[in-house]
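Recap quiz, item 2
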Amino acid sequence: MIKLYYAPHTCSLASHIALEEAGAAYSTLRINFASNEQRSPEYLAINPKGRVPAMVTERGILTETPAMLAFIAQSFPQARMAPLDDPFAFAQVQAFNSYLCATLHVAHAHRMRGHRWADDPAAIAAMQRKVPQSVAACYELIENGMLKGPWVMGDAYTICDPYLFTVAQWLEGDGIEPAQFPRVADHRRRMSGRPAVRKVVAEELAPAIVEA
Amino acid sequence: MIKLYYAPHTCSLASHIALEEAGAAYSTLRINFASNEQRSPEYLAINPKGRVPAMVTERGILTETPAMLAFIAQSFPQARMAPLDDPFAFAQVQAFNSYLCATLHVAHAHRMRGHRWADDPAAIAAMQRKVPQSVAACYELIENGMLKGPWVMGDAYTICDPYLFTVAQWLEGDGIEPAQFPRVADHRRRMSGRPAVRKVVAEELAPAIVEA
């Protein structure tokens, strides 16, 4: 059975939703970012990068959201979450996910993880100031072309949809008014209505069980 | 026939090498970063992101290195550049490429593209100072686990290899002594000896033809 390491409010939500949508047999383990558990020796033995998500499969451990999403789509083909028999259409799916991972998520990360790229507190503050602009530039491209509608790839729901939904959770926190991007906001609403999404979000946002 | 838009010294080298190794029928078009051609209306019509690489196929345009590399591997299966029939092994390939794209390349980009994430010149200078450290942290993980050797995924040459070779071109520029990472340096040397790599590198580094 697949075991997913996740933390609330992070990109691991995308793989969590995809597993649920795929009808996979899986369990989850919550990593406590407040206590820096992602840097604990125990977790670094699972994922030396010290980040979520990580997914334990019967063959070994996988990381990196775009790779995990494609793996879920390929492992549960009956769920039809990617055009597996069409290399060009599959590449379009992957290009969208790669853009979220390497450009949009990176722009967003300059709000809370600036220490990755500079030590000077003034530089970190300067990065934070630019987040609303750099993240909005990504959403311009998504709103005006990449998001075909009603789902990201058009009529077919794919592994792009949980990923866009996941990063779109961060809009307000990044200083962006969702109404600026009505098609993205509409996609977020439509995703929120899916039973799999409601179930996963409820689980992730439930208070962590306090151990005695 | 595939048409690849590339610029020397950028990550487009990975797809260029992969096309050559795959035996693909393709042509190339050089984008002149010195004149900011990647932001010209003509090029933005090809790739609205204003970046390289972009690949024109008979079905349409693809962008994003990890997606393009997987597309090349799937489109030319006889070249055996990825474990196409094994979703777990394919996900390992993709996880490696995603890490290069979203973590290593991003760390590197703070040397010359800091303006993406901050406006203040002092902040941009602070980012540049941290590049040797943040890029080296990526190579620690690659050297000590991710690079299995002799090729990235072990005995099989895959689409991970041209990508690692491509980013490893930037080591010295990022202030890193390659001898610090002997397995990465050895991989770079081994790649340099491949006929496809020699051909592509020679083409990319040849002086641009000056139009009369």
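Chain B touches chain A through 47 residues (CB under 8 Å).
Chain B has a mean pLDDT of 96.
End of item.
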